[in-house]
Design goal:
Layout: E1 11-13, H1 16-21, E2 23-25, E3 34-37, E4 40-42, E5 44-55, E6 58-62, E7 67-71, E8 85-95, E9 98-108, H2 111-125, H3 155-166, E10 172-173, H4 174-181, H5 186-196, E11 199-203, E12 206-209
Helix pairs in contact: 3-4
Length: 211
């Protein structure tokens, strides 16, 4: 992604209902988006539940508080069958106003672990206070570049902007994104964005931004 190292955020132990009742907050630049929940600002989550559906690149789990799709975009779907108890760590996101989670780790576990996770969540809920209301920062006017010049922009952000610009609804053509980027290493930079989960390959050769 960028040349700056990004510290991985803590994966909070929470329920599906925590995420579904939370508010999704988008942030500028490369600061991670998060769900504002009673467990805090959750940009990475640790969930447990039972697989109730598997379709394509998506698994749906139920933890007793709700159901949530778990997805992958650039890797094989982890092995799990309907009825399997699982533990999952990943990044909760929103697509078409519906929450889901981008899988980082998914493991099948013993059913006893589900009871352990449930007790752990209850114990955490007893001493984690609700966070104050998260307010969106007021939009600040951005300095305009002199006429005839382009605003400075990171390469990754440039690719994301191009993908949005070229996406007519069914994804932006990857070849066109790379050719219009106009810098060396655009293909590798695009692959990094896919690996990081900032964009995904809707189908072969078509790229979309994760919103």
């Amino acid at each position: 992604m960028t040349q700056q190292s990004v510290k991985r955020k803590t994966a909070y132990l929470c329920t599906i209902k925590d995420l579904q009742d939370g508010r999704y907050v988008r942030r500028e630049g490369w600061e991670p988006n998060f769900f504002a929940t009673t467990k805090g600002m959750v940009s990475r989550a640790r969930l447990s539940g039972v697989v109730v559906e598997q379709q394509g690149r998506s698994i749906t789990i139920d933890d007793g508080t709700g159901q949530l799709p778990l997805r992958v975009f650039d890797a094989p779907l982890p092995a799990a069958a309907v009825g399997d108890p699982v533990m999952v760590i990943g990044r909760p996101r929103v697509y078409n106003k519906e929450p889901y989670m981008l899988i980082e780790i998914l493991k099948r576990v013993s059913p006893r672990w589900l009871h352990y996770f449930e007790r752990s969540r209850s114990a955490c809920a007893s001493f984690i206070p609700p966070i104050p209301e998260v307010k969106e920062p007021a939009a600040q006017p951005k300095p305009q570049p002199p006429p005839g010049t382009a605003a400075p922009q990171g390469k990754a952000q440039q690719l994301v902007a191009l993908i949005r610009e070229l996406d007519a609804g069914d994804g932006a053509p990857a070849d066109e994104v790379i050719s219009k980027a106009g810098f060396d290493g655009a293909e590798q930079q695009l692959q990094s964005l896919i690996t990081e989960g900032e964009v995904f390959e809707l189908r072969a050769g078509k790229i979309k931004v994760l919103e």
